[in-house]
């Protein structure tokens, strides 16, 4: 009942809601996305993760952990939610920290998510080190 009343009001105002077939893809918007993201293995990406991890551990958690190595890098998804959403590339790798333990790292690149929307943004989760449970503690939320 409420939905039909809302649709009637919107139609009287000349507003028509978009259905799934009418949604604009990310490339046809006024400010389109290009889906040109670096690869998972890109040195700029892994270097950014390493430097930000070290800073975060030191400044926020009071830890002296640093990144020794990121290896076995693989892409686990590219735009898994379709072309009408913000482009993302999902990656997984093995990371060795200064405590010499091997852990899984899941990370993703998001177009336009860098500082003030410039460039790409990188978010990551290291299994066993999601201290704030931002990615559910087991890093599942950082995967496609």
Overall tally of domains: 1
Strand content: 25-35%
Give the count of helical stretches. Answer: 2
pLDDT averaged over residues: 85
Shape assignment: elongated
**Can you give the helix content as a percent range?**
10-25%
Largest sheet: 4 strands, antiparallel
- The whole-angstrom Rg is 20 Å
Which ranges are low-confidence, i.e. pLDDT below 50, for 5 or more consecutive residues? 15-21
- The helix-and-strand class reads alpha+beta
State the main characteristics.
144 residues, alpha+beta, 4 strands, 19% helix, elongated
Written description of the protein model:
This protein is an alpha+beta fold and 144 residues long. The chain has one domain (26-142). 19% of the residues lie in helices and 27% in strands. The protein is built from two helices and four strands, in the order ααββββ. It has helices at residues 2-12, 43-59; strands at residues 67-78, 88-97, 102-111, 120-126. A four-stranded antiparallel beta sheet has the order 1-2-3-4, covered by helices on one side. It is elongated.
Question: What's a quick, concise take on this entry?
Answer:
With 144 residues, the chain is α+β, with helices and mostly antiparallel strands. The chain has 2 helices and 4 strands, in the order H-H-E-E-E-E. The chain has one domain (26-142).
């Amino acid at each position: 009942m409420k939905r039909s009343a809302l649709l009637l009001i919107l139609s009287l105002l000349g507003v028509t809601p978009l259905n799934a077939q009418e949604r604009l893809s990310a490339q046809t918007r006024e400010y389109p996305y290009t889906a040109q993201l670096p690869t998972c293995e890109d040195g700029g990406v892994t270097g950014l993760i390493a430097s930000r991890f070290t800073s975060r551990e030191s400044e926020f958690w009071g830890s002296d952990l640093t990144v020794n190595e990121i290896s076995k890098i693989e892409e686990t998804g590219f735009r898994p939610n379709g072309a009408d959403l913000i482009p993302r590339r999902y990656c997984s790798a093995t990371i060795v920290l200064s405590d010499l333990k091997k852990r899984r790292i899941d990370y993703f690149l998001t177009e336009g998510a860098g500082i003030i929307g410039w460039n790409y943004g990188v978010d990551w989760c290291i299994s066993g080190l999601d201290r704030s449970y931002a990615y559910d503690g087991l890093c599942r939320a950082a995967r496609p």
